[in-house]
Amino acid sequence: MRGLLIFLLSVGIVSCSPPTKEPITLSGIAYNSMAWSVKIDKLPAQLSYQQLQQQLQSRLDTANQVLSTYQDDTELMKFNQSTVGQWQTLSPLLFDGVSTALTVSQATSGVYDVTIGALIELWGFGKQAVPTHIPTDTEIAQARLNVGWQSIVLDNQKHQAQRQKNVFVNLSSLGEGLAVDELQKILANYHINSYMVSVAGTLSTKGVKPNGQAWQIAIEKPDGSGLPEQLLNLGQQGAIVSTSGSYRNYHEIDGIRYSHTIDPRTAKPINHKTVSTTVVFKDKTAAAYADAWATALNVLGVEEGLIMAKKHHLAVYYLVKTPTGFSEQYSPEFAPFLRGDK
User: Is the domain 75-172 a CATH 3.40.50.720 member?
Assistant: First the structure.
């Protein structure tokens, strides 16, 4: 599970205030394990709550059948099993996911790489069980032979992709964003213009709540308490927020804790002190793009990440482990989204 963002119904308590109209909430499970939520101001005409709920869940179930690496019959797994050097026609969802991933891979010189599926499996964060020993240098070197984002080639006109060597594509690092994008398409079809959509650690806001107030979003404390660490001011024009963290998804091998986030440069889990990385994008950016960047900047950690953020003018916020708790560091582009009342 990725780091979480918190939706706050209210901030503070006002005595004797009249009750306010709250959003209509629809929710469920995406990818068999991730909580999703859609909050809207009102239902479209001639559409029941149950009908909209069913459509949203159905779209996510379809996304799982396209993107999952836990089932051998999904579209992504069929692509991973396709003949090297042969073009494969992809669905719009899978093509968009791979295309977005390669865009961020190129921008980060491979710090973000969705072809690390072999390494994810080796370290026990995929379909395979947690290993009984720390992978050896030989095992790591063998897995690295099947890694390399440049080995995926796209034909944008025909919506086709080709593996040029036996890479294993795993899109879990932007799966939440892809799911948010899919849910937003349904809302757009019904001309719903005020909403908050979230899938685990990625969310999108647009418009305002039914009471006219802005959506209240907070970055969660990375200590498992579920309490807010930092409130965000996203405005009414809409924003995409994505958080990547290492404090929820990990396991131990030989008594050592390993993060689920793999650094393609070392072929090993990250081991820096950054525990939570949050990005904010405006201007109709796709949630999948934000999700991928959150992962990339989390892989880099705060020092390298802020350098990368400066290069690309990204709004990023880091929470870093210290001997006494956590410290925050962020890029200048993130400052406008911070609220003073933590």
Answer: no
